[in-house]
Amino acid sequence: MSSPRNASDVSGDTPDGAAWLASAGRYPRSALSHWRERPEAPVVLPCGVVFDVVSAPAVFGRRMLDRMWGEGPGSGPVAEFRGRMLLFAAPGTAQRLPALMEWEEWGAHGTDAARTDGVPPLLCHGTGDAVTVPAPTGRSGSRWLVAPDTRHPWLPGPEVLLWAAVRAARAAVRISIFPPADRGANVYDVSRRR
Q: Is residue 47 within 8 Å of residue 125, measured between CB atoms?
C-alpha cells in the first residue's frame, strides 16, 4: 500500500513553497490540509498581500519567461493554468504595471497602438482579486513551470515585468528603421558592373 503523497512531492514544490502559497489565504492550515488530502486539486487564493499575479496568454507569457531567465534576473514562481501563464509578482505590481505600460505606450487599452505593438492584454490580479493556484502535482490542466520552493521567494516587481513584456514583444515583431520594400520595384544587381 502506498503512503499518502505529501503536497510537495511533485513539480519542485517544497513544503516551504506550499506553506508560502497557503500563507496568502485566510486559513493557511486548511489549504495545506486540502493539498494533503487531494494533492491534485487547485486552490483559490487571494492576491495583494503575499503576491500579485500577472496573467498572460501562454505563448507570450513563455516569451516573457524566456527573456527573464535568458537576459534578466530570473522569475518568481510561474504556473500555467488553462492556456495562460501566471507570473507571480511582488505585491503592488498589479496596480503599478498597467500605469507603467501606458506611460511607456505599450499596451495602452483601447488604442490602435495596443493592437500593433505586440503586447497582448496582460491581466493583473492584485488586492481584492483571487487566482486559482495549480495543485502541487500539476494535474487537472495546470502545472508549475517554476514552482515555489521557499517561504520567501524572490518576486519580480512591475519594472522587471514591463522589461520582459517589451523584450518579448520586440523579439516577436521585427522592428526596422528602414521603410518596407516596394514589391513592384525593379531591382538590379550592381555588384558586377565594371
A: yes
